[in-house]
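[INFO] parsing input record for Phosphoglucosamine mutase
[DEBUG] input buffer:
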Amino acid sequence: MDLPLIVSTSGIRGIVGEGITPEVVSRLAASYATTLRHRRVVLGSDTRPSREMCRHAVLAGLISTGCEIIDIGICPTPSVQIMVDKCEAGGGIAITASHNPVHWNALKLFNENGLFLSHNQLERILNIYHQSLSRVTEGGIKRASFSRLGKVREEHSTFDVHIEKILQGLNVGLIRKKKFRIALDCVNGAGSIITPIFLRELNCTITAINTNPREDFPHPPEPSPKNLQQLSSLVREGRFDAGFAQDPDADRLAIVTEGGIALSEECSIVLATIAVLEEKRGAVVVNLSTTRAIDDIAAAFGCPVFRSRIGERNVVTAMKRHRAVIGGEGSGGVIYPRVHYARDSMVAIGLILQHMAGSGRKLSEIVASHPRYHLIKQYILCAPEKKEKLLADLKEQLKGERLDVRDGIKIIRKDSWAHIRSSKTEPAIRILAEAPTKRGANELFNFIVDKIEMPD
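[DEBUG] output buffer:
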């Protein structure tokens, strides 16, 4: 697009006031609505300051195309996906830029099954959008006549529906018996109200911080260890069994042990995978950038692992193809088909508590017993128009390596790997390197960085 927007199957996002403006958002919403076979749309959002601007713009676009809008308010992204199914809607929109900084916002777009759109579906929306820019008659957007304008109704059952679906997929009795003490950081995001309710349903005693949806994010919103100092201190001083941190739309989870140690977000999918495979053997699907510990754990259970390209849509497609019992991404996203094909931080919390309850061990003891790798995650800023050349030049320099080029460049060695790819959510190139030792990970990371040449 000739606007400063980042477009991927994970959504259409940009900086508010630059790529994300009321005009752009409204036209994108109308273009999306034009592609729907059934014009009932579920609408939810996270808590960013630009929420109301974007919400009203989306409503204008949907109403103008004759949609019936089911407004479920501030809620996690997986709540939107679940309610698309529940309401038999033609699609859904979550207004959220997920882990991006507060000055970003985005539209996450879902189909009639509550799943992210395919590449072809997204391309069709963008074609309609561009046609509407080039023609006075608004091109391919199908506007409704006055008598057929859309209507909005509010739906207040979302939290109950979402929580009940998760509880049906857990051993609730086992978890409730343990009466866990949990510290929670919701980053003042979409999980601020629903997550404490969910934890109380599991008979947990909770102390929650940053649970005011009207306030700004108290720290960088990505749920990575460096951003969890406040939660770590709370857990360490309060003798909790665990600490959990969500991102602004509550689809990703990070964990703090009872000793106040913030774990890599990779641990969320690792722990969830163990919890599921203990109950039911089956295939596991993760993306190309997820820790190799998943392969070791699945092998211990005699289960296969399949890897997909980055992005929830790609993981879900592979999960369905291989009939996976669990899947997700190393960024903290856990997808449990028994609940829904969506990344869901509350599902991850439930599975981790179930595993803790069943094992009878402290969280730190569970983590210490797992295969451990050292994983470096860094990025370099790179303009979108330069990414392709940078990766092509790097691939040429890595001819002697065993490569997987389905999504960027992944170097695969006997006991280590590195993945270099274009970010789908930021103007950046992501670089990941994992090895059994910290030294090995650093050497592999530096090997990559030394070969990267930024195009002119």
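[INFO] The chain has 15 helices and 21 strands.
[INFO] shutting down worker
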